[in-house]
# Entry
Amino acid sequence: MLTIPGLYCYRNENCNENYTTDFIYQLYSEEGKGVFDCRKNVLGHMQQGGAPSPFDRNFGTKISAKAMQWISKKLKETYRKGKVFANTDDSVCLLGMRRRNLVFQPVAELKNETDFVHRIPKEQWWLKLRPLMKILAKYKTSYDVSDSGQLEHVAMHTPKEAETGA
# Structure
């Protein structure tokens, strides 16, 4: 898969032997000078956990179908006079799980929830389970359940403080 902002190029390992991932990457890199940049991402190198289960395949199909429906709907909404005007905040979304639902969330909203320095969410939902984990692990500790759910290095140091060394 090659990633260009807003464009993903997928290539199967059994496709044309002349159009390799490297060739497509070099082509887009050369043609996009000054307009966009390009990077190469071979999914097989990133996968972990062995062969996908039937659940994984089914879930992948569901979210792919949902994503394609969303893209088709957005294209129909923004197509005018032969051009696509995708210039609103909800034009760029991520599809993810929120509680038990698949939700499209605008990237502009996610900006407020993200710690860019550490590349993680500002609030980790699972940190609220720490007191329970301590009980189950039989830690010798007080069972104070007032844990804030914040990571210490994130809550204690803002990016501005980290730069000044405060």
Notes: Residues 1-5 have pLDDT under 50 and may be disordered.
